[in-house]
Amino acid sequence: MSLQIAHRGWSQDNPEENTRAAFRRAEEAGMHGVEFDVRWSDTRAEPVVCHYAWQEKDAESLDHALSFLSTTNFSVLLLELKEYHPFLWTEMKRLLGYYGLIDRTVVFAFPRIAKQFPWETRDKMRLGVISIFPWRMTHYVKLKPAVILFGYDKRKWTQVLFRLVWWDAAMRKLFHMHPDIGFIIGVAQNEKHISHLENLQGLMGYTVDKKEKK
């Protein structure tokens, strides 16, 4: 069974996305894990949990978020860094270590950010990257990340393009060729998407927003 991971706390574009309230709902719904976004606060004083820069001022601190997540039974935490700075990385790692969450966490980002990760040493972290374009997948595989994320979003054309490019047989072959890499697809928008992804043998998991009707 693939891991079902709540995207932004299963609350994308909801005022409570990327909050402890969203994470709590995900746990109550039986999600295996959560995906959330981390960046600097507006004052650059601490890491906060939010997707957009304009949300920084009112965002929850990473400290408070991890304090709650450490009490959950989530088997995986997907932490997307929205920006990179050595001090931000150091503080993020310190907090993950303090709350005993390093082993459960995969830190990932879009390529522009992920290329700044310490890939040579890994810094004792599990690292991941988002593969935006199919033809770049081979490049990211060579990095030997813990996880590669790819897929689509709520825009219909991205969902159609995904199905045109990524045939099920091609994905199963990819998963089989690289058993040491966890592949995660997202973002599932409804039960039809979930049903399709559940039948993909070898898929580590998928991210999902609040379920909508087909």
Summarize the structure in words:
- This protein has 214 residues and is of the alpha/beta class.
- The chain has one domain: TIM Barrel (Alpha-Beta Barrel).
- 32% of the residues lie in helices and 26% in strands.
- The chain contains 8 helices and 10 strands.
- The chain has helices spanning 20-28, 62-69, 86-98, 111-114, 137-142, 156-165, 168-177, 191-198; strands at residues 3-7, 33-40, 47-49, 60-61, 76-81, 105-109, 126-130, 147-151, 182-190, 205-212.
- Strand 7, helix 5 (137-142) and strand 8 (147-151) form a beta-alpha-beta unit.
- The model has no long low-confidence stretch (mean pLDDT 93).
Please give the alpha-carbon distance between the first and last residues. 22 Å
Q: What is Rg?
A: 16 Å
CATH architecture: Alpha-Beta Barrel
Overall SS class: alpha/beta
Q: Note the beta-strand portion.
A: 25-35%
Order of helices and strands: EHEEEHEHEHEHEHHEHE
Q: What is the 3D shape?
A: globular
Uncertain segments: none
Number of domains: 1
Query: What is the strand arrangement across the widest sheet?
Result: 1-2-5-6-7-8-9-10
Output the CATH homologous superfamily: Phosphatidylinositol (PI) phosphodiesterase
Percent helix range: 25-40%
Number of helices: 8
CATH topology: TIM Barrel
Described by strand count, sense and barrel closure, the largest sheet is: 8 strands, parallel, barrel
Number of strands: 10
Please write the CATH class name.
Alpha Beta
Mean pLDDT across all residues, rounded?
93
